[in-house]
Design a protein that fits this description.
- By secondary structure, the protein is α+β, with helices and mostly antiparallel strands.
- It is built from two helices and six strands, in the order αββββββα.
- It folds into two domains: about 50 residues, Pemi-like Protein 1, Chain: D, CATH 2.10.260; about 35 residues, no CATH class.
- The protein binds zinc ion.
- Zinc ion binds next to α2.
């Protein structure tokens, strides 16, 4: 996760503008479907696709945790990192 420091206000219809630089970096074009995911840390907007892709390496995966897709390879890598930090 990257904190951008960008703040946007919700308008009277509940809309929020995603800044152009964020849309460009995430290859979001006008008309693209976005999935709204409610997580324990807040709201996550994700490009909607019929297939889920790992948030770390972008490979196709069916594993989802709190609406976030992670592949088995990255789960294994995270597990190793957690062991190293102990
Ligand atoms: Zn992965």
């Amino acid at each position: 996760m990257t904190i951008t420091g960008i703040v946007r206000r919700v308008d009277d219809l509940g809309r929020v503008v995603i800044p152009k630089e964020i849309r460009r970096a995430n290859k979001i074009k006008e008309g693209d479907p976005l999935e709204i995911i409610h997580t324990t840390e807040g709201i996550l907007l994700k490009k909607y696709t019929e297939h889920n892709y790992c948030v770390f390496c972008n490979t196709s995966t069916e594993i989802e945790l709190d609406g976030i897709s992670v592949c088995t390879h990255c789960i294994s890598r995270l597990g190793k990192l957690m062991k190293e930090e102990k």
